[in-house]
Amino acid sequence: MNVIDIRSMFRAALVNKEFTIDKTGAKTIEILGASFLADQNTIFGTVNNVYVQEELEWYDSMSTNINDIRDGEPPAAWQYSANKHGEINSNYGLLINSRQYHNQYSNALQELKRNPDTRRASMVYQRPSIWVDYNANGKNDFICTNAVTYYKRDGKLNAVVQMRSNDAVFGYKNDYAWQCDVLHSLVQDLDDGTEFGDIYWQVQNMHVYERHFHLI
What is the rounded distance in angstroms from the CA atom of residue 196 to the CA atom of residue 190? Predict the structure, then answer.
């Protein structure tokens, strides 16, 4: 299954009116347990390359304040997640690169170098304390990515991305850009001829909100 198949599943659900109702009362189309080859950079809509670059640079900064994403007003989705001071939990660069979260990028890289056949080159984004962290001081940020594991096979480095929740319109395209960026970095840092491989996308709940049904 690939991105084309996921599009077809959403279109069939729309035709058949297979909706759930979210907490705001809006219709939502959901796919539970979605698993596919992420072979395109968008499922629905177009990629905003300017914003993607802004978000990647913000992740690299490891700032947990959304006001640092860009000059001017932060994106609405991040405003919804942040407390009144702009603080969030989900700076992915912080989660995989900081000492606070155990230098996961470095650990995974060293594991791949030590054992090319390893199955434990994982970076864990989620944490048990999210149950108290997600709404601390007015936040609304229950981290969406659970973990990503990297596999060096047949001369290529592949990634399996496992997500708790993923918006198929805005969320996927930005998350895909981040995962490509991390995978490219690992390939460069391995520096042993390994090539960029495939990204497999596994989502517990992939969804499209009613306001985006026209894109389906």
Answer: 11
